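In the laboratory, one determines a bound structure by crystallizing the protein with its ligand and collecting diffraction data. In a computational setting the workflow is compressed into a single prediction: the sequence and the ligand go in, and a structural description comes out. We illustrate the idea with copper (II) ion.
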Amino acid sequence: MSIGTAPRLALLAAALATAVLVTGCGSDTSKSTPSTTTASAGTASAAPTTGKSGAVTVDVHKMKFSPDAVTVKVGETVTWKFSDKVPHAVQGIGDSAMGINSPIFDNGEWSYTFSVPGTYRYLCPLHPEMRGTVTVE
Ligand SMILES: [Cu+2]
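The predicted complex, in structure-token form:
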């Protein structure tokens, strides 16, 4: 009678069982959560809103700017609407208002976007008594 096969099978079974246990154990210990952290971009500044919500219109009519004083936030746009019987223009007063410099209009619109806080005075170069102010805050 041979006595060799039974112990070998037992050994094989034990080896398999060990392998399964090791594998199972290994899978348990390797159950670590991924450590990649997704960077949050929540602090990025919002895209500039160019909607009409902050836009302000000044009517240039009957030899005056109306309203002659407007207030906008930084980045907002003021539009002058020319609709008088005589031509007018918009021209800033002082260095900081140099950018305010429209062509002469009989009718039409001209816009300027204010990107720096401050108080900007302007006049109509054809009628210097026509004056207005834009406050940017
Ligand atoms: Cu004028």
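The CA atoms of residues 76 and 129 lie 26 Å apart. Keep in mind that any predicted model is a hypothesis to be tested, not a measurement.
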